[in-house]
UniProtKB/TrEMBL annotation:
GO terms for biological process: glycolipid biosynthetic process. It is an enzyme of class 2 (transferase). GO terms for molecular function: acyltransferase activity. GO terms for cellular component: plasma membrane. The gene is htrB_1. Keywords: Acyltransferase, Cell inner membrane, Cell membrane, Membrane, Transferase. This is Lipid A biosynthesis lauroyl acyltransferase. Transmembrane segments: none annotated. It holds the Pfam family Lip_A_acyltrans.
Amino acid sequence: MNKFVEEIILRAPEQWMWLHKRFKSLPDYELTNSRYQ
């Protein structure tokens, strides 16, 4: 499955959504004010 997804992405990488907020690290002050404590 991963190989299939990789092949599709390689056809048009500019169309793939690369940014996902869940993978970004947050500064310490944002963690203390997070609604997901």
